[in-house]
Design brief:
mainly alpha; two-stranded antiparallel ribbon; 13 helices
């Protein structure tokens, strides 16, 4: 293998990491405030919710699916937790109810996709609307206060923000499941060739159902982290986060065609988005232009994915 081929292979396998380093260097040059401990922790906090959603999305995309509902499910989970807490139940129950609501929503989407024969795009688009509608119905369009057990998720432990710790925990779990379990390896088989996986005896329908259930569970956890940061459950929270989650997975090297994806890449992808947004904020760039930049980054990532799949 020639030197050029080695470099090309390294960039293909670690393009997201190289991109993250280059973006960080560019932001550091543009504004010295970027590489400060306070700001870097802020970047981690900003990345946490999207990263947790993206870890759940990684399961779905590896299995050649898509989940457009995670932002709405995160909001529904937080509002449901707030509603339970407002009913006078112990605060720790809210921490349990939120993720369970997300799990239930994911199971519905998974069942509709696997057994109802609906395309994942349609099933999760419907769940996006249903979950957001239920969020508004339950909350009456008003923010829900959170008990201390949930608000704690927005605090710090030994100086480290809890959202970052939760993000790292979910990263470790996702990496273990994808790399070290039969379930995880089966997802790569299903995403690579569903028909071959079925002929090999894999329970494709059951796997598909649980893939979306996991995505919903992660969305529920992300919703709790977001509610902890805000100290309340906002009915309109996490709007558009599903697009950021998909972008983080794709930027991290996953293929929308399925069969390819890593938890490490997803984490890096989420950090890339957070670094870009943070740096543009420090440079006082309009939020409107920030959306343009993020859109271009997403288009570039998808374009690279297409070229990578066409390469021999």
């Amino acid at each position: 293998m020639t030197g050029a081929q080695k470099v090309g292979r390294f960039l293909s396998e670690n393009g997201a990491l190289v991109g993250l380093v280059l973006v960080c260097v560019a932001m550091w040059i543009a504004t010295p405030k970027f590489l400060t401990t306070t700001n870097l922790l802020n970047v981690g906090v900003q990345a946490a919710v999207v990263a947790i959603l993206a870890f759940g999305m990684t399961y779905v995309i590896v299995a050649a699916g898509i989940d457009l509902s995670v932002g709405s499910v995160a909001a529904l989970s937080a509002v449901a937790a707030g509603w339970v807490a407002a009913a006078g139940t112990p605060g720790f129950l809210a921490l349990i109810v939120g993720p369970l609501v997300g799990l239930a929503a994911g199971l519905v989407s998974g069942w509709a996709t696997a057994y109802g024969k609906l395309p994942a795009f349609i099933a999760t688009l419907a769940m996006l609307s249903v979950a957001r509608g239920l969020t508004l119905v339950i909350s009456g369009g008003r923010p829900q206060s959170m008990p201390p057990e949930v608000s704690w998720l927005g605090s710090r432990v030994f100086g480290i923000p809890v959202p970052i710790l939760v993000m790292l925990l979910m990263f470790a779990i996702t990496a273990f499941v994808l790399n070290r379990t039969v379930f995880g390896r089966s997802l790569y088989a299903v995403g690579g060739n569903e028909e071959a996986a079925r002929l090999s005896g894999l329970p494709v329908k059951r796997l598909t159902t649980w893939v979306f259930a996991l995505s919903g569970l992660y969305a529920g956890i992300a919703g709790m982290v977001l509610a902890g940061r805000l100290a309340s459950a906002q009915p309109q929270a996490a709007v558009g986060y599903e697009l950021d989650a998909i972008a983080a997975v794709v930027i991290g090297g996953a293929s929308l065609a399925g069969g390819v994806g890593r938890a490490t890449g997803t984490l890096i992808g989420a950090l890339v988005l957070a670094v870009i947004r943070n740096g543009l904020n420090l440079l006082n760039v309009s939020s409107f232009w920030q959306q343009v930049v993020i859109g271009l980054v997403i288009a570039l990532a998808v374009g690279i994915d297409v070229l990578r799949r066409k390469a021999p």
